[in-house]
Every structure is written in C-alpha cells, then in structure tokens.
Amino acid sequence: MAGIKAGVGVGTVSRMINDSGYVAVETREKIEIAMRELSYTPNELARNLFHKRTGIIAVLVPNVSNPFFAEFVDYVEAELYKAGFKMMLCNTVKASNAELEYLDMLNRHIVDGVITGVHSLDVEEYRKIHKPIVALDRYLGEHIPVVAVDHKEGGRLAAEALISNGCKKILHFRGTTTVESPYHERHYEFDRIMEKNHIKTYSYELKWNRFDPEYYLEVVEDVFSRGFDFDGVFAVDWLAIECMNEAIRRHLKIPRDVKFVAYDGTFITKMVEPKMTAVVQPVEGLARESVRLLRNLIGGKEYRNKQVVLGVQLRKGDTTIG
After folding, report:
1. Taking a C-beta distance cutoff of 8 angstroms, is the pair 67, 123 a contact?
2. I need a labelling partner for 316 at 20 to 30 A (CA). Which of 28, 130, 137, 143 fits?
3. Rounded to two decimals, what is the model's pTM?
C-alpha cells in the first residue's frame, strides 16, 4: 500500500525499509510521507529475519525469585536494551526440559544468542552448539566464554571475617560439586583457611539446582533439628538470612552468640535487621561483561577458553563485630 501511494514499486519500498539497496533521496521522502499517512509500521521481526537476526537474546536462570538472579536479569535487560536487543527470560526451574528448548531456539535462529546461568543441563548439549553463548559461573566448553568473580578471594574474605570475630565452630553451606563451576573455589578456599587455623567446620552440601526459598527453609529446619552447635555461619544471602531469623527466634543474640557472613551481597542483605555482613559480587559488572562478550560473538568474534573474572569485596554489616 505504501508503494502504491508513493507511486513506486514494492521492491523499492522493501529496499528502503530493509536498507538493502540504493533508494534515491527524493523517493525515500515520498515513501516516508506515504507511510506516515497510512500509519504504516514495518514488521520488525520480518526485517530482522531479512538481516539474519531476530534482535532477541534468551537469558536462562534457575529462578528469578532468587535475589542474585533477579538483580542479574535486571542489569542484563538494561544492557541489552542499550545495545538494541530485547530479552527473552527463561526460568528453567519450572520445567525440566526448558533449558534444552531454549538452546533449540538458538539453533533454529529464533534467538540471536543465549546467556545462561543455569546448571541443569549436561555440558555435552552445549558442546554440540556452535552459536553465540555466554556462561555465568559455569564451564561449558572451550568455545563458550565464562563470566565469574574471584571466588577464591571471596572465600578468603568470608573466612577471615569469621576468624577475626573469634568464631570456633562454623556452619558452612556449600553448593553441590556435581557440576563444574568457578564458584567451588570459594568453598575450597574457605575450608582450607579454616583447616589451617584448626577451626571446626560443619559443611552442609545443598541439593543440585535448588535456589528457591522453600528449599532454604527446609535446610534451616534440618540444621536446627540436628542440633548443630555453631557460632559462625557462611551461606548465600537468602539462606544466611533464613538461618539468622531462626537463630533469633531461638533467642540467640546476633552477633554476640552467632556471627553471619553472606555471599552475593544483594539488596536483601541491607533490608534485614541486623544488616548482614556480606561478600559482594558486582552483579552489574557481571551483566555488562556477559552482554559485551555475547555481542562480540554475534559479531563473529571467536573465543577459546575465555574467562572474565571480576573482583569481590567485603561489606561489613551488623552480623559481625568490627
């Protein structure tokens, strides 16, 4: 219709909309006037497909109810928007095959790339795909870049904070070792320092791919029902808070009786009383680097064993002394 009203052929309109060939300035003006008069809106999806891209990035996380992933997704969406992309969000915890389905969408050119922070699918499924993928905190193959923090430093900061507070019996919540990930380094370093200083440590290994609040409540109930005697706790934000809440309900004084150091340092650690001492991951930086690497991959750049490692810091709160 725009072509007829402007007095030009359909092919000329197509070339202008898709920027796929020369169209004279005078002709462009005629087409633009006709489009405005007809209130014509180009089909963005069709135009993107013409250029062999969709403008959509799939972001895979286990559960956005988890504050770390909620913050990460929020920052990723902002970075993608600035780069001219839209985000498709996948909460993989809701369906066992969700991760595989989104990778299939990448294979079928429904999305331009994937940023994955999920640990539910076998690594071999990723190694079959030679498309733009960036991994958050997981090793998926030599051609898939990894974005993470210096977890070894994080483990050291947490351990030294509890030791300096005089803790002698530590409850250490650690992730499962069934998947290969940089985050294990924080647990290894934490345990190494505790052993070096002859401090008793109870290691509680969490179930694979469980980040939901219901599970954390189960874990806390299990810990207290077993009667563990501890004066220090190291756990991810939400779990540390749930454990602290139960300790307070049992009339323990924080930080006099029990000290807490959380890992991640998301917004929820500032919302509780007492405010949580935490090892802070730079979530915004992780999002920015993930998007940067993915844009490079989409642009044709290749990586081999690429890792981007960002620093962490200890933010003192009221769950430790000094």
Report:
1. no
2. 137
3. 0.82
